[in-house]
């Protein structure tokens, strides 16, 4: 499943647009892993997927299954104090410096 933005950008609570993928797709993306308020690693990743000329983009959510291979390159940011913290107005864990 991909989340491709809110149904209405001005509405609260935020209702995400969910796009379900059917079949095997090519995928490319970028993301970050930062600790949350409790120090646990928290992944945030945006991807673009395609199959037979059709493409979709969005934020990956639980339920994305890798078919055979997913290559991942990790870069470490040393001496970084950024973390994800809950933003009460949006309901999202946002990256704070």
Task: Tell me what you see in this structure.
It contains no helices and 7 strands. It starts with a strand and ends with a strand. The radius of gyration is 15 Å and the shape is flat. The relative contact order is 0.25. By secondary structure, the chain is mainly β. Strand 6 and strand 7 form a beta hairpin. The protein has strands at residues 2-6, 16-19, 26-35, 41-51, 54-60, 83-87, 92-96. It has one domain (2-96).
Query: Major sheet, described briefly?
Result: 5 strands, antiparallel
Please indicate the percent range of residues in DSSP E strands (runs of 2 or more).
over 45%
Relative helix content: under 10%
Structural class: mainly beta
Number of domains: 1
Q: Distance between the terminal alpha carbons, to the nearest Å? A: 29 Å
Number of strands: 7
Give a short synopsis of this structure.
With 97 residues, the protein is an all-beta fold.
Question: What are the main properties of this structure?
Answer:
single chain, mainly beta, 5-stranded antiparallel β-sheet, two-stranded antiparallel sheet, 48% strand, flat
Question: How are the SSEs placed, and which strands pair?
Answer:
Elements: E1 2-6, E2 16-19, E3 26-35, E4 41-51, E5 54-60, E6 83-87, E7 92-96
Antiparallel strand pairs: 1-2, 1-5, 3-4, 4-5, 6-7
């Amino acid at each position: 499943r991909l989340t491709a933005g809110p149904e209405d950008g001005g509405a609260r609570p935020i209702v995400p647009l969910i796009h379900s993928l059917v079949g095997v797709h090519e995928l490319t993306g970028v993301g970050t892993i930062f600790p949350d308020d409790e120090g646990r690693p928290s992944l945030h990743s945006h991807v673009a997927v395609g199959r037979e000329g059709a493409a979709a983009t969005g934020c990956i959510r639980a339920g994305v299954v890798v078919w055979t291979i997913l290559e991942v390159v990790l870069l470490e940011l040393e001496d970084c104090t950024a973390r994800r913290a809950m933003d009460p107005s949006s309901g999202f864990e946002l990256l704070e410096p």
